[in-house]
């Protein structure tokens, strides 16, 4: 028999249209130990067709990944990102917060107007303040929805991020040096 | 920039600059063609390949964008520095410049790889799915109105005070109006021909405020009655008593 | 361990935007005994926060019926009653039953529609029939909850009401040349 509070948490998560924080859950499920209930549910659903996952501190149910081949055929492919947008998204995710100039220094080309727009429209990228440096450049970072869409519990789950950091490939980019040496006025293809 | 050209089958890389996202992208693809770890690539060989590629493109009369030429010039400079005897004065050294180029290629390659890995993940809405028809949660905010008993009684008092203001006005202000003063002074002075002090015309009162008001309006009344020719007013000097009497000609 | 086919049926039902017939399910979940899988799932979810139900030959998951109240939660936020509302409440308490026109005559200002709504939402004021007079105006009176909130046994406990009346402060107030007068008959009700 499932504990009444665990049932309440299960029902709340099932009914929700969005991933929920433990606080959101508590607001609906009433008094109880949300963390324990979540752990219990995650274990209960382990190996089933539906599983309970955490994405950036928010919880939701989703179908098991290994069943993608069954479910995918009915759905239209979500937006296909251009190579430029894919690279830009990766750079933001692995370096955030990062300025447009830094993105361009890594990619070696200017960022076309639409590239960041597409990522923001998809809800995966957001402006994240300005850097306190000359010119106060606008910074970009990823969103909650980014973690949710790509199935990441947090940015620490980004594939290979630890290796890249250890190899020094995520060190801050020297924007001025990059432009001095590899001046590129070229457009994006 | 894309060009439809008859290319020889043995060309390993298509001579279409439009296929590349700028010089760095072209360099990275040439480096990958070396088929070794990016950390191990030969920069000299890479420079050779790049310059050759651009020469080839030019041979086909392709328009070559400025940034490709700038890169070519820089790479040609780097190549000459790497081949010439070392100049210890040079800073940064050619080896340092080559290392930086290598790092840039590695960075771009790493991000390209990371992007591909991200896109290949189980993505919500493509590979894994949230519940198709969630009932939805609603959080209704309801105001818990607060008021104390004191607020209630105070409010009622305020309302009553506001709706019955006249009573208070009259009771509070002790004033002798000008009209009253004229009437009073006029009646008291009557037909008396002897001088009397202005103060003797004032009503008897314990209220200093009312006395001040009565004095002021009686003085104004005296001036008004004098103007009409009913009384005469006299004062011997500044701050001396003001004297009042009926005007003889006025007698009936 | 859940059977692979049962998992597939579970995921298909979960992801579907509408209830599915066994044929619909078979089209997605591949070859297998849909009936058996549905029976297995229905039993598995029995007593949980989510249940599998059949309606007219179509199957879908829904939140357990006894937990439906969790989906709509009200949160109370303390808010101070405005001065206009407090005055209006006081007038109703001292003069009930009283019409809106009479409240306005006593207050000396118009009463916004929202003011009475707020008092009714708070549960302190109720409509109390209509006056048998031209226009049959709606009357308002206080509620039991009003007495409870302000710690009153009855309206007789309103302090100073006798003194106020003795001082003539509770005399009926003229409404438009004295045609309408406050009734005091129901005052002690």
Task: Give a brief description.
Chains A, C: This is SMC-Scp complex subunit ScpB. The complex is a heterotrimer, with two copies of chain A (189 residues) and one copy of chain B (252 residues). Chain A has 189 residues and is α+β, with helices and mostly antiparallel strands.
Layout of helices and strands, plus pairs?
The complex is a heterotrimer, with 2 copies of chain A (189 residues) and 1 copy of chain B (252 residues).
Chain A: H1 4-15, H2 22-29, H3 34-45, E1 50-55, E2 58-63, H4 68-71, H5 83-95, E3 98-99, H6 100-107, H7 113-121, E4 125-130, E5 138-142, H8 144-149, H9 161-166, H10 175-181
Antiparallel strand pairs in A: 1-2, 3-5, 4-5
Helix pairs in contact in A: 1-2, 1-3, 5-7
Chain B: H1 22-33, H2 43-59, H3 66-83, H4 94-119, E1 138-146, H5 149-163, H6 166-172, H7 178-189, E2 196-197, H8 208-227, E3 231-235, E4 242-246
Antiparallel strand pairs in B: 2-4, 3-4
Helix pairs in contact in B: 1-2, 1-4, 2-3, 3-4, 7-8
Pfam family, one (chain B): SMC_ScpA
InterPro entries (chain B): ScpA (IPR003768)
Protein name (chain B): Segregation and condensation protein A
Q: Structural class of the helices, strands and pairings of chain A?
A: alpha+beta
Distinct helical segment count of chain A: 10
Strand content of chain A: 5-15%
Beta strand % of chain B: 5-15%
Total beta strand runs of chain B: 4
The protein's oligomeric status is heterotrimer
Per DSSP E runs of 2 or more residues, the count of β-strands of chain A stands at: 5
Low-confidence stretches of chain B: 1-12, 165-171
Our measurement of the CA-to-CA distance between the termini of chain A, rounded to an integer number of angstroms, reads 60 Å
Shape of chain A: elongated
InterPro entries (chain B): ScpA
Organism (chain B): Sphingomonas arvum
Protein name (chain B): Segregation and condensation protein A
Pfam families (chain B): SMC_ScpA
